[in-house]
Every structure is written in structure tokens, then in C-alpha cells.
Design a protein that fits this description.
The chain is α/β, with parallel strands linked by helices. The chain has nine helices and 13 strands. Strands 1, 2, 3, 4, 5, 6, 7, 8, 9, 10 and 13 form an eleven-stranded mixed sheet that branches. Helix 1 (13-29) packs across helix 2, helix 5 crosses helix 7 (207-225) and helix 6 crosses helix 7 (207-225). The relative contact order is 0.14. This is Universal stress protein UspA. Belongs to the universal stress protein A family.
Length: 295
């Protein structure tokens, strides 16, 4: 299976900024980039666009514009472009099955734009098979500091955050960047304490040392695999969303895990990923874990 990065484009400034970010990431990783634009003929209210050939020509124009812009800025990049005859959600989810990374544009502070308008964002991010990066646009350019850490959230045991940590370390190694791993914790209600958890916390010397030990253990295999990546460990009392957002201003990339839950209204992403996608000023990578059973 050939490895590649895929960027969805729809003609918006946000998607063009995402394509540029994807191009630079592809160069960092030594991978080709494929630009995709989904189009399927449907009757529209505008009479001039009722003709399928006219709509198809417009779709090809969107793709050619994005391809030309990326090729001009990154002539050394292995680049392909494709119009996919399907709905945006179906097309993007299909590409995510074999892509290393799917990149999309985001307006932030509200609904994710273009391909992720309204419920599209939840459907794609919650069900994609590969990591999805939402790239914020600022005046047509990706909103990303020229230098900064890869900020990643860690929670639970070592296995719970392994996919997000793997992606964060891979990205940092490819970019020559450092990783800041954040573990947020809160004081549980009294009834939540069990004899086993109290014993573990006591053995660690208290609740804070217990959380610090949990973070060290989760990071240990990735430190060993990527010994040249500098790592900062950060444990803070507070909600995971608030703690991560407070450190995202100077980050190159914020990485969060995604354990999608399927309910009556479809797949839902967690509250931390939701907050990061809407409020973080830097690009946000949502990395899938295994999908939970229906609830």
C-alpha cells in the first residue's frame, strides 16, 4: 500500500491554507500529497448550473486552482489531484482508509468550514480511519507559529493514549521539534475513591506524584523509540480541554486522541477534541483510537 497525505479542497481560503499545510507536512515526512475534491451532480436552484457538464467543469476548476497554488509554492513536492464522484463525507472517509493523514480547512470559533460544514465535521472526524488535521486559516495562510512544540494530551493508562502519542512523536521527529505531553487531572468526588486507587496514590506519595508517574509510564516507550525528540512533561489540575487550550497558543500542532462513540444520532467525538477543534489557535490533529461499542 502506497503511503500519502490527502488534503480536501473546496475552493475556500481555509481549504487552500490546509492544502499548503499538508504540502509542507508531506515534505517533512517524505510523502506524496494528493488533493481531492468531491463532486456529485445534483440539481441546483441556479439555472446556469443545472447542466452536469457545467458543474463538473466548475469542480475541475476548483481542483486545478488548488493544484496550481500548491505546485507553485512547493515545486519539489510529489503532487497529484483528483475529483471524486461522491458526497464530501463519503469521499473523505473513503480516502482516510489508506491515507497516512487527512487534512482539512477550519475557520475555528464556530463550525468547521467547507467540507466540514455543520454535521460534516463530526461525521468525518469521528469516523476517519487515519488522523485528521484541521488547519485554521489566517488571511489565507495556515495559522501556525514558525517554531513551537508539538502539544499532545495524555490520559488514562499507557494504552489509552498510545495512538496520539505515536502521532505526536512521529510529527516531532519529522519536523525536528519538541513534544510537550500534558496530563490534566481533577479531584474526584469522595465516593469515587476506591481502596485500590487510594493505595496506588499513597504508594506514589500523593495524588500529584501519582499523576506524574502515570505520564512518565505512558511516555516511556515513545522516548525510547524517539530518543532525539526533546520531551517536556506537564501535569496540571484542571479539565483536559482547558489545560490543553491554555498551552496551544505557541504550539505548532495540538494532538488529541479520539475515541468515537456511536449513538442514536451517529458518531460523536469527545468534548476535548470538540473544544480543541473550535477554540485552539493552532492546527489540531485528531487521532483515532478504537471505536467504542454503541451507547
Amino acid at each position: 500500500m502506497s503511503r500519502e497525505i490527502v488534503a480536501g479542497v473546496d475552493g475556500s481560503p481555509e481549504s487552500l491554507a490546509a492544502a499548503d499545510w499538508a504540502a509542507r507536512e508531506a515534505l517533512h515526512r517524505g510523502l506524496p500529497l494528493r488533493l481531492v475534491h468531491a463532486w456529485r451532480w445534483e440539481p441546483l436552484d441556479l439555472p446556469l448550473l443545472q447542466d452536469p457538464a457545467t458543474q463538473q467543469q466548475a469542480a475541475q476548476g476548483v481542483l486545478r486552482e488548488a493544484e496550481a497554488a500548491v505546485a507553485e509554492r512547493h515545486p519539489e513536492l510529489a503532487l497529484t489531484a483528483q475529483v471524486i464522484g461522491d458526497t464530501p463525507v463519503a469521499a473523505l472517509l473513503d480516502t482516510s482508509r489508506e491515507a497516512d493523514l487527512l487534512v482539512l480547512g477550519s475557520r475555528g470559533h464556530g463550525a468547521v468550514t467547507g467540507y466540514l460544514l455543520g454535521s460534516y465535521g463530526q461525521q468525518v472526524i469521528a469516523a476517519a480511519r487515519c488522523p485528521v488535521v484541521a488547519v485554521r486559516s489566517r488571511d489565507g495562510a495556515p495559522a501556525e507559529p514558525p517554531a513551537g512544540e508539538i502539544l499532545v494530551g495524555q490520559q488514562g493508562g499507557p494504552e489509552d493514549s498510545a495512538p496520539a502519542l505515536r502521532f505526536a512523536f512521529e510529527t516531532a521527529a519529522a519536523r525536528g521539534a519538541a513534544v510537550r505531553a500534558v496530563r490534566a487531572w481533577s479531584l474526584p468526588p469522595l465516593l469515587a475513591y476506591s481502596p485500590a486507587s487510594l493505595r496506588l496514590a499513597d504508594e506514589a506519595g500523593g495524588l500529584v506524584p501519582y499523576e506524574e508517574k502515570a505520564l512518565r509510564e505512558a511516555l516511556a516507550p515513545w522516548r525510547e523509540r524517539y530518543p532525539d525528540v526533546p520531551v517536556t512533561e506537564h501535569v496540571e489540575l484542571g479539565s483536559a480541554g482547558q489545560v490543553l487550550l491554555s498551552g496551544s497558543g505557541a504550539a505548532q500542532l495540538l494532538v488529541v486522541g479520539r475515541r468515537a462513540r456511536r449513538g442514536a444520532l451517529g458518531s460523536r467525538i469527545g468534548s476535548v477534541a470538540h473544544a480543541a477543534l473550535h477554540l485552539a489557535p493552532c492546527p489540531v490533529a485528531v487521532v483515532p483510537h478504537e471505536v467504542d461499542a454503541q451507547d
